[in-house]
Specification:
Layout (H helix, E strand, L loop, with lengths): L3 H13 L3 H6 L1 E8 L8 H14 L4 E4 L3 E3 L2 E12 L4 E14 L2 E8 L2 H9 L1 H6 L3 H22 L1
Parallel strand pairs: 1-6
Antiparallel strand pairs: 2-4, 3-4, 4-5, 5-6
Length: 156
């Protein structure tokens, strides 16, 4: 059985190669994914989210650091460089990931990043002025969720 560190490394190596199929195969069918934009995604939604982000992120580049492992949990800091499609602005996002593994699969994936920092880069002036306010975060979440739902519907 692979360790949490091995699974985490495999996941981010697949991400670097933009291999959403491999990433999704590392998820358990009962995985729960959370980050500041997407909340409580199930396996189908999380797999679809990675497919959507990779397919839209034409200039997406990813780096990840040393993987830490504590029992069934792999932790890593990863960095994404891409152009935010809605505004055309360049983003450098630094994310702390925690992947809980069981029976060789990821059962819980939590990404943490500074939403205000991200919104300033991705949205420009509106992010600078309003990125710290809950209404903007909720608006981004709602739009992202609608985008994911539409993407998943079109994949059927």
């Amino acid at each position: 059985m692979k360790s949490a560190a091995e699974i985490t490394k495999e996941f981010y190596e697949a991400f670097q190669k933009k291999d959403a199929t491999k990433m999704g195969a590392l998820y358990s069918d009962s995985v729960i994914f959370n980050d500041p934009v997407f909340n409580n995604l199930n396996a189908t939604e999380a797999r679809g989210m990675w497919q959507m982000l990779i397919s839209r992120g034409k200039d997406l580049e990813l780096k990840f650091g040393e993987i830490q492992s504590e029992g069934d949990t792999g932790k890593v800091t990863w960095e994404a460089y891409y152009t935010f499609s809605k505004t055309g602005k360049k983003v450098h996002n630094v994310i702390q990931a925690e992947l809980v593994c069981k029976d060789g699969k990821i059962i819980k994936h939590t990404d943490r990043f500074g939403f205000y920092r991200w919104s300033r880069q991705a949205l420009g002036l509106p992010g600078l002025l309003f990125g710290f306010l809950p209404f903007l975060k909720n608006k981004i979440r709602t739009e992202a969720r609608k985008g994911l739902d539409l993407y998943l519907k079109r994949q059927k």
